[in-house]
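fyi for ur records
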Amino acid sequence: MVTEIRIYVEGGGNDKFTWRKIREGFGQFLDPLRQLARSRRVGWSIIPCGPGSETLKEFMIGSRRNPDAFNILLVDSESQVVLPRREHLRQQAGWDVSLLSEDQCHFMAQTVEAWIIADPDSLAGYYGQHFRRSVIPGHSDIEAVSKEQLLSTLKRATEKTQKGPYTKIRHCADLLGRLNRDRVRQRAAHCDLLFRTLEARLGG
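which gave:
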């Protein structure tokens, strides 16, 4: 079993305040894993890094500095994943992933908004009156929905609500903390894989 888990996550822009919010949002969403880590006396860190390329850079630096930790790269896949995860990153973004193991490479497929749309009940509760639930796709495999469609759907579903149309910086972190993670895992296979990978590493 590992002694520390460090998750380098894409998101939060380039602002330390939004990084804090994203860290809190992911922390709440992944809370069962955090609690399992604490019960095993395993260190736990979520490190927001901004854009995907910066996330890879920080992951590589962190891996060298923390070689005994289980370091994870968590980024948007940007497109549907049909190849092994490392090969997807090589072809999609042209990244050198030779120092990553397949086990360390994880996706929000095709983007974090897939996780959000996977739980329309939480979306409706967050946005309240005038939320247009009817435009949310009902695909059992939410990862088959393109990034562009996910973003446009969220905008159309929320544009008349009191909170205004969805934007990643204003709403993503709050929504992550409200999601029904079991529902998301059912509809987003790579989210489920992240949970299963960490549960296995933690002896859960």
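The mean pLDDT is 95. thats all i got for now
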